[in-house]
Amino acid sequence: MPDAMRAKRASQDPPAPIPRMVKCPQCGKSVPWTPESRYRPFCSQRCKMIDLGAWASEAYRVPAVEKDDDETSSDGGDHLPD
Ligand SMILES: [Zn+2]
Prior knowledge:
By secondary structure, the chain is of the alpha+beta class. 29% of the residues lie in helices and 7% in strands.
């Protein structure tokens, strides 16, 4: 439970009535960091799924075969293999 740590850390701060706002990593929408926000830090299930899908796509794009990276040390990230 993070509550103990949180209480200890924020002992000198008054309890904030306004929940901490985070930005949806997918669309940038402000999302209150509360238990009600089931998909936080995403604003909705849709954004969460989009992000997870993108992550999975990236993961699957990682080649399973190890190649000696003597001269292929460049890691731009935007390179699309043919
Ligand atoms: Zn969103």
